[in-house]
Fold:
Amino acid sequence: MMSPKDPVKKLGVNIDHIATVRQARRGSEPSVPEAALEAERGGADGITVHLREDRRHIQDSDVFELSRKIRVPLNLEMSISSEILKIALKVVPEKACLVPEKRQEITTEGGLNLFRKRTQLRRAIDALLKKETEVSLFIDPDEKQIREAARLGVPAIEIHTGAYANAENRVRNGELERIRRSAELGAELGLRVHAGHGLNYENIFPLLEIPEIREFNIGHSIVSRALFVGIVKSVAEMKKIIVGGR
Structure:
Protein backbone atom coordinates (compact mmCIF):
# COMPACT_ATOMS: atom_id res chain seq x y z
CA MET A 1 0.00 0.00 0.00
CA MET A 2 1.18 3.53 -0.71
CA SER A 3 2.52 5.55 2.19
CA PRO A 4 0.92 8.93 2.97
CA LYS A 5 3.99 10.63 1.46
CA ASP A 6 3.62 8.94 -1.93
CA PRO A 7 2.11 11.01 -4.77
CA VAL A 8 -1.43 9.95 -5.58
CA LYS A 9 -1.60 7.51 -8.46
CA LYS A 10 -3.85 8.52 -11.33
CA LEU A 11 -6.57 6.69 -13.26
CA GLY A 12 -7.09 7.13 -16.97
CA VAL A 13 -10.37 5.58 -18.14
CA ASN A 14 -10.44 4.10 -21.63
CA ILE A 15 -13.93 4.38 -23.12
CA ASP A 16 -13.30 2.64 -26.46
CA HIS A 17 -15.87 -0.06 -25.73
CA ILE A 18 -18.65 2.44 -25.22
CA ALA A 19 -18.07 3.15 -28.90
CA THR A 20 -17.92 -0.59 -29.64
CA VAL A 21 -21.51 -0.94 -28.43
CA ARG A 22 -22.59 2.10 -30.45
CA GLN A 23 -20.92 0.86 -33.62
CA ALA A 24 -22.80 -2.44 -33.41
CA ARG A 25 -25.81 -0.47 -34.70
CA ARG A 26 -23.88 2.39 -36.37
CA GLY A 27 -26.13 4.76 -34.44
CA SER A 28 -25.63 7.44 -31.82
CA GLU A 29 -26.18 5.43 -28.63
CA PRO A 30 -24.50 5.11 -26.24
CA SER A 31 -22.92 8.55 -26.36
CA VAL A 32 -19.13 8.53 -26.10
CA PRO A 33 -18.89 12.12 -24.78
CA GLU A 34 -21.56 11.45 -22.16
CA ALA A 35 -19.70 8.33 -21.07
CA ALA A 36 -16.57 10.44 -20.68
CA LEU A 37 -18.41 12.99 -18.55
CA GLU A 38 -19.81 10.19 -16.40
CA ALA A 39 -16.28 8.84 -15.96
CA GLU A 40 -15.19 12.32 -14.86
CA ARG A 41 -17.97 12.34 -12.27
CA GLY A 42 -16.68 9.02 -10.99
CA GLY A 43 -13.20 10.47 -10.45
CA ALA A 44 -11.32 9.75 -13.68
CA ASP A 45 -8.11 11.75 -13.92
CA GLY A 46 -8.09 11.42 -17.71
CA ILE A 47 -10.01 9.95 -20.62
CA THR A 48 -8.28 7.60 -23.04
CA VAL A 49 -9.49 6.66 -26.52
CA HIS A 50 -7.78 4.75 -29.32
CA LEU A 51 -8.49 6.12 -32.79
CA ARG A 52 -7.70 3.00 -34.77
CA GLU A 53 -6.94 3.10 -38.47
CA ASP A 54 -9.93 0.83 -39.21
CA ARG A 55 -12.25 3.00 -37.03
CA ARG A 56 -13.72 -0.11 -35.43
CA HIS A 57 -14.95 1.83 -32.41
CA ILE A 58 -13.81 5.42 -31.81
CA GLN A 59 -14.48 7.76 -34.76
CA ASP A 60 -12.76 11.01 -35.73
CA SER A 61 -15.77 13.03 -34.58
CA ASP A 62 -15.57 11.43 -31.13
CA VAL A 63 -12.03 12.67 -30.65
CA PHE A 64 -12.83 16.23 -31.66
CA GLU A 65 -15.98 16.31 -29.51
CA LEU A 66 -14.17 14.90 -26.48
CA SER A 67 -11.44 17.51 -26.82
CA ARG A 68 -14.12 20.21 -26.58
CA LYS A 69 -16.27 18.76 -23.81
CA ILE A 70 -14.16 17.01 -21.20
CA ARG A 71 -12.38 18.87 -18.42
CA VAL A 72 -9.73 16.26 -17.64
CA PRO A 73 -6.84 15.53 -20.03
CA LEU A 74 -7.57 13.62 -23.23
CA ASN A 75 -5.10 10.80 -23.89
CA LEU A 76 -5.20 9.77 -27.54
CA GLU A 77 -3.87 6.29 -28.23
CA MET A 78 -2.68 6.22 -31.81
CA SER A 79 -0.53 4.50 -34.38
CA ILE A 80 2.26 6.41 -36.10
CA SER A 81 0.51 6.40 -39.49
CA SER A 82 0.54 9.75 -41.27
CA GLU A 83 -3.28 9.75 -41.45
CA ILE A 84 -3.76 9.38 -37.69
CA LEU A 85 -0.90 11.76 -36.91
CA LYS A 86 -2.53 14.44 -39.07
CA ILE A 87 -5.75 14.14 -37.02
CA ALA A 88 -3.85 14.24 -33.72
CA LEU A 89 -2.08 17.43 -34.76
CA LYS A 90 -5.47 19.04 -35.43
CA VAL A 91 -6.98 17.89 -32.14
CA VAL A 92 -3.85 18.60 -30.05
CA PRO A 93 -4.73 16.31 -27.12
CA GLU A 94 -3.01 16.87 -23.80
CA LYS A 95 -1.50 13.39 -24.11
CA ALA A 96 -0.76 10.95 -26.92
CA CYS A 97 0.26 7.33 -26.42
CA LEU A 98 1.89 5.78 -29.48
CA VAL A 99 0.89 2.15 -29.87
CA PRO A 100 1.41 -0.66 -32.40
CA GLU A 101 -1.58 -1.62 -34.49
CA LYS A 102 -2.58 -4.58 -36.65
CA ARG A 103 -5.88 -4.73 -38.52
CA GLN A 104 -6.49 -8.40 -37.67
CA GLU A 105 -5.94 -8.11 -33.91
CA ILE A 106 -8.88 -8.04 -31.51
CA THR A 107 -7.07 -5.65 -29.20
CA THR A 108 -3.50 -4.37 -28.92
CA GLU A 109 -1.35 -7.48 -28.58
CA GLY A 110 1.96 -6.05 -27.39
CA GLY A 111 4.18 -3.04 -27.13
CA LEU A 112 5.88 -1.00 -29.82
CA ASN A 113 9.22 -2.16 -31.14
CA LEU A 114 11.10 1.12 -30.98
CA PHE A 115 13.84 -0.16 -33.29
CA ARG A 116 11.45 -0.46 -36.25
CA LYS A 117 10.13 2.34 -38.45
CA ARG A 118 12.53 4.70 -36.71
CA THR A 119 12.07 7.60 -39.13
CA GLN A 120 8.29 7.47 -38.95
CA LEU A 121 8.37 7.11 -35.15
CA ARG A 122 10.76 10.01 -34.76
CA ARG A 123 8.62 12.20 -37.00
CA ALA A 124 5.48 11.47 -34.97
CA ILE A 125 7.20 12.12 -31.63
CA ASP A 126 8.74 15.39 -32.76
CA ALA A 127 5.51 16.68 -34.32
CA LEU A 128 3.47 15.94 -31.19
CA LEU A 129 6.05 17.37 -28.80
CA LYS A 130 6.16 20.53 -30.91
CA LYS A 131 2.42 20.91 -30.20
CA GLU A 132 3.19 20.49 -26.47
CA THR A 133 1.37 17.16 -26.33
CA GLU A 134 2.83 14.81 -23.72
CA VAL A 135 4.00 11.75 -25.64
CA SER A 136 4.21 8.28 -24.13
CA LEU A 137 5.30 5.05 -25.81
CA PHE A 138 3.37 1.83 -25.18
CA ILE A 139 6.12 -0.76 -24.73
CA ASP A 140 6.67 -4.18 -23.24
CA PRO A 141 8.56 -4.40 -19.92
CA ASP A 142 11.88 -4.81 -21.70
CA GLU A 143 15.14 -3.06 -20.78
CA LYS A 144 16.23 -2.37 -24.36
CA GLN A 145 12.89 -0.79 -25.24
CA ILE A 146 12.89 1.38 -22.13
CA ARG A 147 16.41 2.65 -22.72
CA GLU A 148 15.51 3.41 -26.33
CA ALA A 149 12.42 5.32 -25.17
CA ALA A 150 14.66 7.50 -23.03
CA ARG A 151 16.98 8.10 -26.00
CA LEU A 152 14.01 9.15 -28.11
CA GLY A 153 13.34 11.96 -25.66
CA VAL A 154 9.74 11.20 -24.73
CA PRO A 155 8.58 12.24 -21.26
CA ALA A 156 6.68 9.03 -20.48
CA ILE A 157 6.24 5.34 -21.18
CA GLU A 158 3.26 3.06 -20.66
CA ILE A 159 4.24 -0.48 -19.73
CA HIS A 160 2.15 -3.13 -21.47
CA THR A 161 0.73 -5.31 -18.69
CA GLY A 162 -1.06 -7.83 -20.89
CA ALA A 163 1.35 -10.72 -20.29
CA TYR A 164 1.02 -10.19 -16.54
CA ALA A 165 -2.79 -9.96 -16.70
CA ASN A 166 -3.09 -13.15 -18.76
CA ALA A 167 -0.59 -15.22 -16.76
CA GLU A 168 -1.23 -17.46 -13.77
CA ASN A 169 0.60 -18.40 -10.57
CA ARG A 170 4.41 -18.42 -10.79
CA VAL A 171 4.39 -17.17 -14.36
CA ARG A 172 2.42 -14.14 -13.22
CA ASN A 173 4.94 -13.51 -10.45
CA GLY A 174 7.69 -13.50 -13.05
CA GLU A 175 5.78 -11.04 -15.23
CA LEU A 176 5.16 -8.86 -12.20
CA GLU A 177 8.88 -8.77 -11.48
CA ARG A 178 9.59 -7.76 -15.10
CA ILE A 179 7.17 -4.86 -14.70
CA ARG A 180 8.73 -3.88 -11.39
CA ARG A 181 12.26 -3.80 -12.81
CA SER A 182 11.09 -1.93 -15.89
CA ALA A 183 9.28 0.70 -13.83
CA GLU A 184 12.37 1.23 -11.68
CA LEU A 185 14.57 1.59 -14.76
CA GLY A 186 12.15 3.98 -16.44
CA ALA A 187 12.07 6.20 -13.38
CA GLU A 188 15.88 6.11 -13.11
CA LEU A 189 16.07 7.32 -16.71
CA GLY A 190 13.77 10.23 -15.93
CA LEU A 191 10.64 8.81 -17.55
CA ARG A 192 7.17 9.06 -16.09
CA VAL A 193 5.89 5.49 -15.87
CA HIS A 194 2.31 4.49 -16.69
CA ALA A 195 0.83 1.00 -17.02
CA GLY A 196 -2.12 -0.57 -18.76
CA HIS A 197 -3.78 -3.44 -20.62
CA GLY A 198 -5.84 -6.24 -19.14
CA LEU A 199 -5.97 -4.70 -15.66
CA ASN A 200 -9.06 -5.22 -13.53
CA TYR A 201 -10.39 -4.81 -9.99
CA GLU A 202 -8.33 -7.77 -8.72
CA ASN A 203 -5.05 -8.03 -10.60
CA ILE A 204 -4.19 -4.35 -10.17
CA PHE A 205 -3.33 -4.68 -6.46
CA PRO A 206 0.24 -6.02 -6.87
CA LEU A 207 1.00 -3.22 -9.33
CA LEU A 208 -0.05 -0.64 -6.75
CA GLU A 209 2.94 -1.77 -4.71
CA ILE A 210 5.29 -0.46 -7.42
CA PRO A 211 5.84 3.19 -6.45
CA GLU A 212 7.31 4.20 -9.82
CA ILE A 213 4.02 3.57 -11.64
CA ARG A 214 2.15 6.85 -11.42
CA GLU A 215 -0.80 6.26 -13.76
CA PHE A 216 -2.99 3.35 -14.83
CA ASN A 217 -5.05 3.31 -18.03
CA ILE A 218 -7.95 0.89 -17.70
CA GLY A 219 -10.93 0.36 -19.96
CA HIS A 220 -12.51 -3.03 -20.54
CA SER A 221 -13.01 -4.03 -16.91
CA ILE A 222 -14.46 -0.63 -16.00
CA VAL A 223 -16.89 -0.63 -18.93
CA SER A 224 -17.85 -4.24 -18.14
CA ARG A 225 -18.56 -3.35 -14.52
CA ALA A 226 -20.53 -0.31 -15.66
CA LEU A 227 -23.08 -2.58 -17.34
CA PHE A 228 -24.21 -3.58 -13.85
CA VAL A 229 -23.59 -0.51 -11.68
CA GLY A 230 -23.21 2.41 -14.08
CA ILE A 231 -20.13 4.31 -15.20
CA VAL A 232 -19.89 6.71 -12.28
CA LYS A 233 -19.81 3.88 -9.74
CA SER A 234 -17.54 1.58 -11.73
CA VAL A 235 -14.99 4.37 -12.14
CA ALA A 236 -15.32 5.43 -8.50
CA GLU A 237 -14.68 1.86 -7.35
CA MET A 238 -11.49 1.62 -9.41
CA LYS A 239 -10.34 5.08 -8.34
CA LYS A 240 -10.80 4.13 -4.70
CA ILE A 241 -8.62 1.04 -5.23
CA ILE A 242 -5.89 3.01 -6.97
CA VAL A 243 -5.79 5.80 -4.43
CA GLY A 244 -6.22 3.68 -1.32
CA GLY A 245 -4.83 0.26 -2.21
CA ARG A 246 -6.27 -2.62 -0.22
About this structure: The domain at 10-244 is CATH 3.20.20.70 (TIM Barrel).
